[in-house]
Every structure is written in C-alpha cells, then in structure tokens.
TrEMBL record:
SUPFAM superfamilies: Calcium-dependent phosphotriesterase. PANTHER family: DUF839 DOMAIN-CONTAINING PROTEIN, SLR8030 PROTEIN. Transmembrane segments: none annotated. It comes from the Bacteria. Residues 1-11 have a biased composition (Basic and acidic residues). InterPro entries: PhoX (IPR008557), TAT_signal (IPR006311). This is PhoX family phosphatase. Residues 1-29 are annotated as: Disordered.
C-alpha cells in the first residue's frame, strides 16, 4: 500500500469520499448507463428527431427557444434573483438573503465547554465542542416550533493537514511543490476521533437570527468512542464478536457519518459511509472475512488509528470492520441514551436514510451505497408508525425488509427483497442466515442482479408529489462501450438525477417507474450531453449532484460535491431545481461555498423561512489542493473562511440562510 505520508502522496483523508480507486463490484450486472442507453434506443431517438423536424419546419429554432424560455420562466416554482457562479475564498448567497455562520468547528456546545484554541487542541476539549467536517443537517422541533428546536449534525471525517499546526512541510521536487506530512501523535489521533460522529444542539431564533443555546439540556456530542449497541438480526452474531466485546452487541463509536435523516417519530439517524479508510493491517492468512472486506475496500488505511488502537488493526481485531457500515439511531430526547446500530437496514457505504410514512402506516427509508457501480436500496419496516405514541416506535427499525433496485430499459424499476432463503441468498452461496446476508449486503445484491449505479448518494422521497429523487454523483469509470449515441455519457464526470414514481403512489410497492430528471454538466458543451432546460442560465447548471432536500412545498434543492477550478470552473453550491410543468429541468444557483469546500446538508426549517447548509472541508482540494498549483494546509490555507483571522485555521461550519426582512425562501 502507498505510504500516505510520503512526499509523493496526496492527503489521503481528502480522498475517502471521492472513491476514485479501482471498481470493486465484481459482477457483470448491467450498469445504469447501459439501461438508459437501451431504453432511449436509436429507434426512439429517430422518432423524437422526426417530431422535432416536423415542428422545426414551421417554427424557427430561435422562436422555439424563446418560447421555451418564456414558459419555463412563467412556470418556475422559485422566485429569487440568481447568484453568479464563480470561485473565491468566501461564501455567497442570492441577493436579498443573509447567510450567517451558526456553528463552526470547535465552537463550545455546553456551558462548561472550553473556547476553541487551535494550538492547544485536546480530545477532552473536542468532545465538548462542535466537531469537524459537518455533513448531514437535520432539525427536530421542540414543542412543534419552527423557531426553536434541536439541530442534529453529522461530522463525517477529518483533514489533519488543515486541523493541526506544524505537521506539513513543503518541499520542491522535480520543479513541483509536494507536501510531506509528519505522522500524527496519539494525542492528535484522539482529537480526530473526538471530532468525528455527530452533534445534537438546541437552537432558537431570536430577532430573526438563529442562536445556539449552550446550556440546552439535550445538547450532546457523539464521537468515535461513544458506547453503542448492535440491534436487529446481526446482534450477537459470531462475525461481530471481538476481544473487547465477546457478546457481539456492544460497539464503541461511529465514524464517517455522511448523510442521515430524522425519523417520523423524531429520532436522529446517522449513516456510516466510507468505513474502509479507518482500518489498517492485514487479516490472518485464509481468514473468512477476506472476500467480504475486499468488496468494501477494507483496509484502505487513510487514518493512523490502527497504530494506536488495536481495534482498527485487522491483524489484531479481524472482526471489527463488521461492526461498522450500519445506520445508527439516536434518541435525541435522552442525552444519556445508548445509540443503536440498526442492522436490519443492511451494511454498506451508507449515504443517508431519508424516510416517509406509506399509505398503510409502514415507514420506508431510501438508502444509497456511495461507490461507483453500487446500488440503490430501500428498507420497509414490518411494523407501522404510531403517531400518538412515540415509545411504540422505539424498535421499529429492527424488523423489516431491505430491498435493492433493479432498473429496466422499459422504464420500470423492481425492488428485490434481500431475504435469506429467497432466490440465490442461500447456504449454497455461503449465507447461513439473515445476519450473513446483512453483513454482506453488497454481495447479496450482486447475486440478485441489482443495477450498477453511478455513485448513489442522497435519495429523497417527496411527500407532495409522490416522487423519489436519486442523486447519482458521477462515474468516471464507465466505459464507452456501455453507452451509445443516444446517451453519450462515457466517463460520466458530472452525474445525473433519477426520478422514481412508485406504483399506485405506494412507497412500499415492489415496482415503480423511473425517468432521468437531469443529466448534469455544462449544457454548452455538446459532448457532455447535459439536459437542463433552455431557461437554465450559465450560472444555473451544475455537476456532481450529491445531497438534496425537498422543502414543505415539494420543491427540490440540490447540493453538489466535486466542482472546482479544474472540473467546472465554479465552486460547489445549492441549486433550486424545477421538477414540474414547463419549467421542469430548470435550475438556478442560490448559494455557493468558498474554494475547496463541498456543499452539504441542505435542510429547510418546517416553515421554509430558513435553509441550513453545511460547508464541509473549506480550503481542501485535489492534487493541487486548491486547484491553482499551490498546496493548502494549516499555515497557508487557500482561504481562512469563516473567521478570516491570521491566528485561526479554516473551519467547517453550518450556515443559516434567511430572507432579509423575513418570509419564506424563494417565493
């Protein structure tokens, strides 16, 4: 394995979410690109071309475009003056709005929390302060209020080169500047571990501005060391037993929590995503977990935790990785409660767990597996949601059926149950029971013939229009022979969005229909093949859709991950995307982040008068770090957002966006 502290290596923790390594799905299951290409075959393309030609014979192309623009403008669900796309060291929001920093890495969360001192960091202090790299943001109302509630925030991972002073040295080799990064001390690793996990914090709107309530009785930090329980079919199984936990039920901590969700009964769910980067060492020769871990890319070794803690070293605790890659549920009403890893929902690189109550009262969770050529899932609870008795929903996530999606070229999608004993999920294929099926969810989905997708990230059900929106960030590994002239998306660098309509409007349905809402990228470049409406401006298009939100009016908002100087010439941001009527596929830029940052969240308050967004890893970047050929690190970052003080490092933060003078956003 490459030494990630060598001068020729990039900062390894920055690469975890990129998943640019070799494809690890070994199956010949069809890819979504192949299915899209087959569905929109040349025959269909020619029929469409003939129709357009017939129209064009009587109406000039310019007149057609003008008419389309007018219809889209009139039909848009969003009313705001669009922000200009670009790149600089600050954040920007559409005219008429304020974007206020609410929480920064290191901000105190409790009355006795120490103030943030980046030169004197400790695990004890960090465990009482806001964590690093905020991702998912959720809101749980207190007494039904849209202006007083709990903000729940995931802390996905850490960037030590931006966190700690004195660990990066810049050397020049072969005419290029390279970074040499010193190994972290155990104390610094402990800070990293405390900076992971999640935050639960009381917030209140006062005079139109949000404030943190530092003495909130429900405030809580969850870290990589917080005691948790495994529950559901995998709890107590031999494959999750370790020296520290021979019962196979008690786990310490959670990490790489990317997107997440809030359940209908008001609990907070955290999705464990790129777990492979935290493990190092080698399995004992011939160990039974070798194939299982290979399918997940374990070990990757981006972090140095295994050098200080045996549980992250496969040679010493070979079962430990099976205790991660789950959905974690937290009861926010009890800050002393033990979080539960709900194993019935499957084990993979989870990207979010957004939910909706179906017609019959069961609850449906949509789940993405964020890897190129991996799958889209949904989990349907066995029991029904009880709106009048919160306690009755306590273990609702321990029983239910996990499904994986198989998309067909006729525009239908089938949800295949991942259940031991059904189809190929038998002892003959190495599964002794449902616990094995769930521990190896990816292999089970492989055998079922699920459709290989282009990095499934956030998946959002829409209660207003009954649709489901799937963010597919990109897939640079897709080969040219997997597409044809009607779908020219080889090396799909910019991703796309799929819209699913479940049969009969029933989110528990075994079948549904699908359409491509958007193929993303610059529509002015023909070879990209983007499909934004003609009313979308030069500022309005985007690539790399990642997180999304549906506001109370049913409108779709999309956040991006991966834009920058080289990829698009613009930073990541938040776009409003029309999904209905003449304006369908029209997009407008509302907010953009500083250089090097990813746009996470987003979340709308229940009254739609606030949009909470998470600005993650500002100042980070790709091979040139900030994209301009110079390294960006603690002492010399490409931005000092949000403080812009010479003694403060760049700090991931949550931002609260409100309309000047009050009122709903974008109406």
């Amino acid at each position: 394995m490459t030494d990630h502290r060598s001068p020729d290596a990039r900062f390894r923790t920055s690469q975890l979410e990129e998943n640019e390594g070799p494809a690890i799905n070994p199956t010949d299951n069809r890819t979504m690109g192949e299915i899209i290409a087959a569905r929109f075959s040349r025959r269909g393309f020619l029929k469409g071309s003939l129709a357009v030609s017939a129209i064009a014979a009587t109406v000039s192309p310019l007149a057609m475009i003008a008419a389309d623009d007018a219809r889209a403008a009139e039909g848009s669900a969003f009313q705001f003056d669009e922000l200009q796309a670009g790149i600089d060291d600050k954040h920007h929001v559409a005219p008429g709005y304020d974007a206020d920093v609410l929480l920064r890495w290191g901000d105190p969360l409790f009355a006795d929390s120490p103030d943030f001192d980046p030169t004197k960091q400790s695990a004890e202090a960090q465990a009482r302060q806001f964590g690093y790299n905020n991702d998912y943001v959720g809101y749980i109302a207190i007494d039904g209020s849209a202006e007083h509630g709990l903000l729940v925030v995931n802390h996905e991972y850490t960037n030590p080169h931006l966190m700690f002073p004195g660990i990066v040295s810049i050397v020049e080799k072969d005419g290029k500047k390279k970074a040499e990064v010193a190994p972290l001390s155990k104390e610094q690793v402990d800070v990293e571990m405390a900076a992971h996990g999640g935050t639960i914090v009381e917030i209140r709107k006062d005079g139109g501005k949000w404030q943190v309530v530092r003495d909130g009785k429900l405030n809580r930090r969850i870290t990589s060391s917080t005691e948790m329980m495994l529950s559901g079919p995998v709890a107590g199984h031999d494959r999750v037993k370790t020296k520290a936990d021979p019962s196979g039920t008690k786990v310490f901590g959670t990490f790489n929590n990317c997107a997440g969700g809030v359940t209908p009964w008001g609990t907070y769910v955290m999705a464990e995503e790129n777990i492979h980067g935290y493990f190092s060492g080698e399995l004992p020769e011939g160990h039974e977990e070798a194939a299982n871990y290979k399918r997940l890319g374990i070990p990757e070794g981006a972090y140095e935790w295994g050098a200080h803690y045996d549980r992250f070293n496969l040679a010493k605790e070979p079962n430990e990785p099976n205790r991660f890659g789950w959905i974690v549920e937290v009861d926010v009403n009890d800050p002393t409660s033990t979080p539960r890893k709900r194993t019935a929902m499957g084990r993979f690189k989870h990207e979010g767990a957004e939910s909706i109550v179906a017609k019959d009262g069961r609850v449906v969770f949509y789940l993405g597996d964020d890897e190129r050529f991996d799958y889209v899932y949904k989990f349907v609870t066995k029991g029904s949601f009880n709106a009048s008795d919160r306690a009755a929903n306590k273990d609702l996530l321990d029983e239910g059926t996990l499904h994986v999606a198989k998309f067909a070229e006729d525009g239908t999608v089938e949800w295949l149950p991942i259940v031991f004993g059904q189809g190929p999920l038998t002892a003959g294929n190495g599964f002794a029971g449902q616990a094995d099926v769930l521990i190896e969810t990816r292999r089970a989905a492989d055998l079922l013939g699920a459709t290989k997708m282009d990095r499934p990230e956030d998946i959002q059900p829409n209660a207003v229009n009954g649709k489901v929106y799937v963010m597919l960030t990109n897939n640079s590994k897709r080969k040219a022979d997997q597409v044809d002239a009607a779908n020219p998306r080889a090396e799909n660098a910019f991703g796309h969005i799929i819209e699913i309509t479940e049969a009969d409007g029933d989110f528990t349905a075994a079948k549904g229909k699908w359409e491509v809402l958007l193929k993303c990228g610059d529509p002015s470049v023909a070879d990209v093949g983007a499909t934004f409406s003609t009313a979308t401006t030069a500022n309005g298009w985007f690539g790399m859709p990642d997180n999304c939100a549906v506001d109370s009016a049913g409108r779709l908002w999309v956040a991006t991950d991966g834009q920058g100087p080289k990829a698009t010439g613009r930073t990541d941001g938040l776009w409003a995307v029309d999904t209905e009527g003449a304006a369908r596929a029209t997009s407008k830029l509302f907010f953009r982040v500083p250089i090097g940052a990813e746009m996470c969240g987003p979340l709308f308050a229940p009254d739609d008068q606030t949009a909470f967004v998470a600005v993650q890893h500002p100042g980070d970047g790709g091979e040139d770090w900030d994209g301009f050929g110079r390294p960006s690190y603690y002492e010399d970052p490409s931005t000092r957002w949000p403080d812009f003080k010479p003694d403060m490092p760049v700090r991931p933060s949550v931002v609260a966006i409100t309309r000047q003078g009050g009122g709903k956003i974008a109406v």
